[in-house]
Structure formats: C-alpha cells, structure tokens
Design goal:
Structural class: mainly alpha
Number of strands: 0
Distance between the termini: 32 Å
Order of helices and strands: HH
Radius of gyration: 18 Å
Strand content: under 5%
Helix content: over 70%
Number of domains: 1
Number of helices: 2
Length: 71
C-alpha cells in the first residue's frame, strides 16, 4: 500500500468520530475523548496527506521543468 493512501485512510478513520459527533449526540465522557484525542489526530493525518500531495505536485513541476528545458 502506498504511503499517501495509508495516510488518507488514517485521516478518514480518525475524523469519523468527529463527523459522527455532529450527527449523534455522545455522552460527555465520549465527547471529551473525541476533543482530546481524535481532533488532534485527524488534524495531524490530514496535514500529512496535504504535505504528501504538495510534495508530489512539486516533484511533478520539477520533472516537467526538466523536460521542457531539455536537461
């Protein structure tokens, strides 16, 4: 499995409890766990996915620049 795919799957899995929290009202203890654990985790994994995408776009730009200049 590619690293980018793994990171995007982790981002989806960690953001699921947050999305469900908006739909279903959880008890207070579960809400506190979601606030302290899942929100920072999902932000971290979403950041990883965005950084991986930015890096691949940068690599693509470098590759096209090389082919256009002929080096």
């Amino acid at each position: 499995m590619k690293k980018g795919t793994k990171n995007s799957m982790l981002a989806i899995i960690t953001s699921l409890p947050i999305i469900l929290g908006f739909i279903i009202s959880f008890p207070l203890a579960v809400s506190i766990v979601i606030l302290t654990v899942f929100i920072p985790l999902s932000a971290y994994y979403i950041g990883l996915v965005l950084m991986a995408r930015a890096k691949t776009k940068k690599d693509e730009k470098e590759r096209t620049k090389v082919t256009f200049t002929g080096y």
